[in-house]
Design brief:
Elements: H1 4-15, E1 20-26, E2 31-36, H2 43-52, E3 62-64, H3 78-83, H4 90-93, E4 104-109, H5 116-124, H6 134-141, E5 146-153, H7 158-168, E6 174-180, E7 185-190, H8 197-207, E8 210-214, E9 221-227, H9 232-244, E10 248-254, E11 259-264, H10 271-280, E12 284-287, H11 290-300, H12 302-328, H13 333-339, H14 349-365, H15 367-378, H16 384-408, H17 419-443, H18 445-451, E13 457-463, E14 470-477, E15 486-489, E16 498-509, H19 511-514, E17 520-522, E18 527-528, E19 533-534, E20 538-545, H20 551-564, H21 570-601, H22 609-613, H23 617-631, H24 634-654, E21 657-659, H25 662-668, E22 673-677, H26 678-682, E23 688-694, E24 706-709, H27 711-716, H28 725-734, E25 737-744, E26 747-755, H29 762-771, E27 775-779, H30 784-794, E28 798-800, H31 805-817, E29 822-826, H32 832-837, E30 840-844, E31 857-859, H33 865-899, H34 912-931, H35 968-974, E32 994-995, H36 1000-1009
Parallel strand pairs: 22-27, 22-29, 23-32, 27-28, 29-30, 30-31
Antiparallel strand pairs: 1-2, 2-4, 3-4, 5-7, 5-8, 6-7, 9-11, 9-12, 10-11, 13-14, 13-15, 15-20, 16-17, 16-18, 16-19, 16-20, 21-31, 23-26, 24-25, 25-26
Helix pairs in contact: 7-8, 7-21, 11-18, 12-14, 12-17, 14-16, 14-17, 15-16, 16-17, 16-23, 17-34, 18-24, 20-24, 21-23, 21-24, 23-33, 23-34, 24-33, 24-34, 28-30, 33-34
C-alpha cells in the first residue's frame, strides 16, 4: 500500500463482502484488522479479495480475540487453509479464538509487491493438496519460507539449467528454484531449519558447477579496508573504540585480511563518520570496492573470457600440429614419406606424434568437459558437456585402441586413427566458448555502464561544529557522502548522489539515467539525480538519498532483476533442453547401427564415396555417429531468450524504459488495449483555479465545519444544493473543468472550477497506438463531461468517468474477460490496484521516484511517447526471440539429419571437425543476433509527440475529489497557500493550487470565501 486510495480500495472491497463486519486498514503499519463471521466467510476468501485489489497478503496472518486483540499463541497460517482448497486443517482451525458474538478478527500485513512464489501459492489454493505439493504445504504450514540467491559458474546452455532444476527439484526443504543462465544466478526458496543455501550450493557443485550463496549486503552494514594494523592490539583497539561509538551496533576487524565489517544505525551516523573515527585512531581506512568491481567483472565476463582465451591458445598450440600431421602431410608424396617413417612395434611417426600431441588437449583442456559430464550423468541428467565428451572420447579412444592393436598385431596392419578429430573438436568448442563469452559480456554492457556512472570523488563543504558555518571544501570518495551533506558541483562534474539544488543554477544531462535527450534546467529547489552530468553552471546541492536509496541504484537493481527473471517463453526452451541431449545420443547410436547394417549388406561398389576414403566401414560409421553428437547444439536454443532479454532490458534502461521482468516483456507484445488514467497521465496533473462561484457568503465564525467534494458527497451530508447549480456545473464541465463543491457549517456556499492541461504529446501518442492496432481507453474519477472533453482532444472514444480506484480494477477485469490483453497506464499510486490487475502495468514517474511496486514497467521521463517506445521495444525484443528460436530450430533440424548421412547418396556428408565448428558458431550466432537489439531506436511519432515534451516541477498538485469524500484537513493542505497536498505523478510546485485569470478584487473575494 502506498496511499489512502489503496486503503479506500481495500476497505471498499471488503465492506461489500458478505460476512465482513468491520475492517480497519492501517497504511502506516501495512496491516488490516478484519472482523468477520466465520460461518459466512473464511480468512482465505478475505485474503483473496485483498489480492484481487492488487496487493499481497503474506502467510503469517493471525486470528485475534475481540476481547484482548492479542495474537499470542493463536497464530494461524492462512496458507495452509488456502493450499487445502479453503478447508482449514483441524489443528489450524483450533487456533482460532472464539468471540462472544461469533465473529473473529484476522490481522493481515499487506505489502505491495507480487512475487512468483506468491503466485504459486495462490495457484495451489485452487487445487487439493497433492503429494507433489508436500514440501510447499509444509513450508506454508511452518510460516513464511526464506529466499536466497546463488551464484553459479560453468553453465553454458539450457541443458545445464534443466539439469540443475531437475536434480534439485526433489531436495528436502527446497520449495522452488529458478536458474538464470546468462545472469549465472539461481533464486531459491527454502524452509529454514531443513536446508540452507550453502547445502544447496554444495548439491549444485556436485552436479558439476561452481555455486556459492550470494550474501546480500545490508544497507546499514559497511565493509572497510583498514591499513596500518600490526598486531592483535590494533584489532582490539579499533573494535573497542568503534563499539563505544553511538550508532555502531557491532564491529568485527580482521588482522589477516586487513578488513573491518561494521554494522551501524544510519539514522545516527554515516559511513564517513566511521572512516574518520578509524583515521583519528592513526589507521587508514578505505571503503571496500571489491563487491561492485567484482560484479562489473562478472557482468563483462572478464574472468571467463580470459580463461577461455588461455584454453584456446593452449589447445590450438597442440591441435594445429595434429591437424597438419593428419590432414596436410598425407596430401603430398614427401609428406606421406615423413608420416610413414617407421618406429617401434610397427608404428609410424605420424600416428605416434598425433597421439602424444592430442593427450594434452584431450586430458588438459578437455578434462573440464569430462568432469562436468561425469557429475551430471551421476545425477541422471545430461548437458552439452556430455555430448562434447562423448564425441571427443569416442574419437580418441578408438584411435588409441587402433594404435595399440596395430602394435600387437603380428602383421602390424596400419592403424586407423583420427586423433585430429578429437583435438580439433575440443579446439573448436573452446573457440566457440571464447567468442560466446565475449558476446555475452556485451549483452550486459548497458548494466555495466549504469554501475559506473557514479563519480569516484566529489567535493563537499566542511562545517564548523561550533558555528555551523562552512569553513572549507574537501574532496572525498562519493561512497562516503552522507545524507545532509552540502556538495559543490562544478561544470562537467557528475552528480554524486540524489539531492536538491540549494543555490546556483545549471543544466544537467540526464540522458544516461532517464533517457531525456535535452539537458534539464536546474535551479534552487530542483531535484538532481546521481550519475547525471552537470553542464556549464555551478550549483550547491544537499544530499537526500545515498547508497542503495538512489535512483541509479534502484535502476541497476530493477535491470538486474529483469535480466535474472525468465520470460514464459523460456519454459519451452528449458523443456526441450531437458530431452535434447538424450535424444541426440539415441539418434547418434541409431545412425551408427543403421549405417553399419547398410555398409555390411550393400555391395561395396554402391556404397557412398565416404566409405571408400575411410580405412574401414567401422571408422566411417563411427565418424557419422560422432558428427551427430557434435553438431547438435542445445546452447543455441537455451540462449535464444535470455540473451535477447538481457540486451533488450539494457537498451530500455538507456532510454528510460525500465522493464521489471520477462513476464512484462512477453505481456507487452500481446497488448491489444491500453487504458490511460487521466490526471497526471494524459494531463500535466497541475490543476489551476480557472473559475469560482460564490452562492452564499459564509458568516464569520471561529469554527467552520467544511464539507467538500462532488454532488453525491454533499447529498450524503444532507446539504441542500441550489437549483441553479446544475446549469452552472454543466457550463464548467463542458469547458473541461472539474467543479469542487464547498459547504460550510451545513450550508452550501459555492464551488471552485479547476482545470488541467493536456500533455502536448497526448494526442499524437494515442494516434500512434491506434495506428499500431491497439485500442485506447481512458478511465478517470473525474466528472463525465470533463472526461469527455479531455478524451475528445486526445482522440479517445472509449471513456469511463466517475470511477473509483476499485472501480478501475473492475473495468480492467471486464476488458480482460472480453479477451483483451490490457495495459494500464498510470502514475503508480492511486492506480496501484488497476496496475496490478492489468496484464501490463506501466507507471509514468519523474525524478527519483521509481520504486513502483504495482507496475510491471516504469517510464522514467513521464513522457507519453515513451509508452509507444516501450511497446515497440518489447515487440522488437520478442521478434528477436522468435528469430533466435527459429534459427536454433532450423540449425538443429537441418544439421542433425545432415550429420546422420541423409545426403550421403548424393556425396554430401559432415566431417566431425566441421560439425564441431558449426556447433561452436551456432551459439555465437544467436548471441550476435541478440546484440543487434542495440541498434533499436525510438519510433518517430508524427505530430506534437515527436518534438514536444514537458518538464516536471518538484512539488505535488491536486487530490482526487469526490470519490469517497475528503476530510477537512485535506482541504487545508490542498487549497490554502503553502499546502503540500499531492497527486501522484504530479508536476505542480509546492504551495497549493495556482490561480490564473483572476483580478485583484476576485483574488481578495476568493481568499475571504475560502
Amino acid at each position: 500500500m502506498t496511499c489512502m486510495s489503496c486503503v479506500n480500495a481495500i476497505t471498499s472491497v471488503l465492506s461489500s463482502s458478505p460476512g465482513v463486519k468491520d475492517i480497519k486498514v492501517s497504511l502506516k503499519q501495512e496491516e488490516a484488522v478484519v472482523e468477520y463471521d466465520p460461518a459466512t466467510i473464511q480468512p482465505g476468501q478475505i485474503k483473496e479479495a485483498i489480492e484481487d485489489c492488487g496487493f499481497d497478503v503474506p502467510f503469517d496472518t493471525a486470528p485475534l480475540d475481540l476481547a484482548d486483540a492479542t495474537a499470542d499463541g493463536s497464530t494461524l497460517s492462512a496458507a495452509s487453509t488456502i493450499v487445502s482448497s479453503g478447508t482449514p486443517p483441524p489443528q489450524a482451525g483450533a487456533r482460532f479464538l472464539s468471540a462472544a458474538n461469533n465473529t473473529k478478527q484476522h490481522r493481515s500485513p499487506i505489502p505491495t509487491a507480487h512475487s512468483d512464489s506468491d503466485t504459486l501459492k495462490r495457484n495451489n489454493s485452487k487445487h487439493p493438496l497433492t503429494s507433489s505439493q508436500a514440501t510447499l504445504s509444509k513450508a506454508l504450514n511452518n510460516g513464511p519460507f526464506k529466499s536466497a540467491q546463488l551464484s553459479i559458474q560453468g553453465m553454458t546452455c539450457a541443458s545445464c539449467v534443466a539439469s540443475i532444476e531437475k536434480t534439485l527439484k526433489s531436495t528436502p526443504g527446497l520449495v522452488s528454484i529458478k536458474v538464470a543462465l546468462l545472469a549465472e544466478r539461481a533464486t531459491i526458496e527454502y524452509i529454514e531449519g531443513e536446508t540452507t543455501p550453502r547445502e544447496i550450493a554444495n548439491l549444485i557443485d556436485d552436479i558439476g558447477f561452481e555455486a556459492s550463496p550470494i550474501v546480500e549486503k545490508r544497507q546499514d552494514q559497511v565493509d572497510l579496508q583498514v591499513f596500518g594494523m600490526t598486531c592483535a592490539s590494533c584489532v582490539n583497539s579499533i573494535e573497542g573504540e568503534l563499539r563505544k561509538t553511538p550508532g555502531i551496533i557491532s564491529a568485527s576487524v580482521s588482522l589477516t585480511l586487513q578488513a573491518a565489517k561494521v554494522e551501524y544505525d544510519n539514522s545516527v551516523l554515516g559511513v564517513r563518520d566511521i572512516v574518520e573515527k578509524i583515521e583519528d585512531m592513526g589507521f587508514d581506512a578505505l571503503l571496500s570496492g571489491k563487491s561492485q568491481s567484482a560484479q562489473i567483472e562478472s557482468l563483462g565476463r572478464k574472468k571467463e573470457v580470459a580463461e577461455w582465451r588461455s584454453a584456446l591458445i593452449f589447445s590450438f598450440t597442440f591441435a594445429f600440429p595434429v591437424f597438419v600431421i593428419s590432414m596436410i602431410l598425407p596430401m603430398c608424396e614427401w609428406g606421406r614419406s615423413i608420416y610413414n617413417i617407421p618406429l617401434l612395434f610397427g608404428t609410424v611417426l605420424g600416428d605416434v606424434s598425433a597421439f602424444f600431441l592430442t593427450i594434452p588437449v584431450q586430458f588438459g583442456i578437455g578434462m573440464r568437459f569430462i568432469i562436468s559430464a561425469y557429475k551430471s550423468l551421476k545425477h541422471g541428467v545430461a548437458t552439452m558437456d556430455v555430448l562434447i565428451s562423448l564425441g571427443t572420447l569416442s574419437a580418441f579412444t578408438f584411435s588409441t585402441f587402433s594404435l595399440l592393436y596395430s602394435m600387437f598385431d603380428p602383421e602390424h596392419h596400419p592403424a586407423s586413427v583420427f586423433f585430429d578429430t578429437s583435438s580439433m573438436l575440443i579446439t573448436f568448442v573452446t573457440f566457440g566458448r571464447y567468442l560466446e563469452n565475449m558476446a555475452k559480456g556485451e549483452t550486459s554492457a548497458a548494466l555495466s555502464k549504469l554501475m559506473c556512472l557514479t563519480p569516484s570523488t566529489c567535493t563537499i563543504y566542511v562545517v564548523d561544529p561550533k558555528t555551523g558555518e562552512y569553513t572549507s571544501e574537501k574532496k572525498i570518495p562519493s561512497e562516503l557522502v552522507q545524507k545532509g551533506d552540502i556538495i559543490k558541483v562544478v561544470p562537467g562534474d557528475k552528480v554524486p548522489t540524489d539531492g536538491v539544488v540549494i543555490s546556483g543554477h545549471s543544466t544537467v544531462d540526464e540522458s544516461m539515467v532517464t533517457g531525456e535527450v535535452e539537458p534539464i534546467n536546474k535551479t534552487a529547489g530542483s531535484q538532481v539525480i546521481g550519475g547525471t552530468v552537470n553542464g556549464l553552471g555551478t550549483f550547491d546541492m544537499e544530499a537526500v538519498r545515498v547508497g542503495s536509496e538512489t535512483a541509479l541504484a534502484q535502476i541497476v537493481q530493477l535491470v538486474e532483476d529483469a535480466q535474472t527473471s525468465k520470460a514464459p517463453i523460456q519454459a519451452y526452451a528449458d523443456k526441450i533442453a531437458g530431452y535434447f541431449v538424450p535424444t541426440v545420443i539415441l539418434m547418434a547410436i541409431l545412425t551408427f547401427v543403421v549405417w553399419m547394417v547398410i555398409s555390411h549388406t550393400m555391395v561395396d561398389e554402391k556404397l557412398p564415396m565416404m566409405f571408400m576414403h575411410e580405412p574401414s566401414k567401422f571408422v566411417a560409421c563411427l565418424k557419422l555417429c560422432i558428427s551427430v553428437i557434435v553438431v547438435a547444439c542445445p546452447c543455441a536454443l537455451g540462449l535464444s531468450t535470455p540473451t535477447a532479454v538481457m540486451v533488450g532490458t539494457g537498451v530500455g534502461a538507456q532510454h528510460g524504459i525500465l522493464i521489471k521482468s520477462g513476464n512484462a516483456l512477453e505481456a507487452a507484445h500481446k497488448i491489444t488495449k491500453v487504458v490511460f488514467d487521466k490526471t497526471g497521465t494524459l494531463t500535466v496533473g497541475k490543476l489551476v483555479v480557472a473559475s469560482w462561484n460564490l452562492y452564499k457568503p459564509s458568516r464569520s465564525s471561529d469554527k467552520y465545519r467544511v464539507v467538500i467534494g462532488n454532488k453525491s458527497w454533499l447529498n450524503e451530508h444532507q446539504i441542500r444544493l441550489p437549483s441553479s447549480l446544475a446549469n452552472d456545473q454543466m457550463t464548467q464541465e463542458r469547458a473541461g473543468r472539474t467543479t469542487v463543491l464547498v459547504a460550510m457549517n451545513g450550508s452550501f456556499v459555492g464551488f471552485i472550477a479547476l482545470s488541467d492541461t493536456i500533455k502536448p504529446e497526448a494526442a499524437a501518442t494515442v494516434a500512434k497506438l491506434q495506428q499500431m492496432g491497439i485500442q485506447v481507453a481512458m478511465v478517470t474519477g473525474d466528472q463525465p463531461l470533463v472526461a469527455q472533453v479531455i478524451a475528445s482532444e486526445c482522440g479517445i472514444h472509449d471513456v469511463h468517468a466517475g470511477i473509483s480506484p476499485s472501480g478501475k480494477t473492475k473495468i480492467v477485469t471486464k476488458m480482460q474477460e472480453q479477451g483483451h490483453c490490457v495495459a494500464m497506464i498510470g502514475d503508480g499510486i492511486n492506480d496501484s490496484p488497476a496496475l496490478a490487475q492489468s496484464d501490463l502495468g506501466i507507471a509514468l514517474v519523474s525524478g527519483t521516484d521509481i520504486a513502483m511496486e504495482a507496475a510491471d514497467m516504469v517510464l522514467m521521463r513521464g513522457d507519453l511517447t515513451d509508452v509507444v517506445a516501450a511497446v515497440d521495444l518489447c515487440r522488437t525484443i520478442f521478434r528477436r526471440i522468435r528469430y533466435n528460436f527459429a534459427w536454433a530450430c532450423i540449425y538443429n533440424l537441418l544439421g542433425v539429419p545432415f550429420a546422420m548421412g541423409i545426403f550421403l547418396p548424393w556425396g554430401f556428408h559432415l566431417h566431425p571437425m566441421m560439425a564441431g565448428l558449426l556447433m561452436a558458431f551456432s551459439s555465437v550466432s544467436v548471441v550476435a543476433s541478440s546484440l543487434l537489439l542495440k541498434m533499436w531506436r525510438k519510433p518517430e511519432i508524427d505530430g506534437r509527440g515527436s518534438s514536444f515534451g514537458y518538464s516536471r516541477g518538484r512539488g505535488g498538485s491536486s487530490v482526487l475529489f469526490g470519490l469517497g469524500g475528503l476530510v477537512q484537513d485535506v482541504w487545508s493542505k490542498v487549497v490554502f497557500p503553502g499546502g503540500n497536498g499531492r497527486r501522484r505523478g504530479s508536476s505542480a510546485g509546492a504551495g497549493g493550487y495556482t490561480r490564473v485569470g483572476l483580478s485583484e478584487d476576485e483574488e481578495a473575494e476568493l481568499d475571504r470565501f475560502v
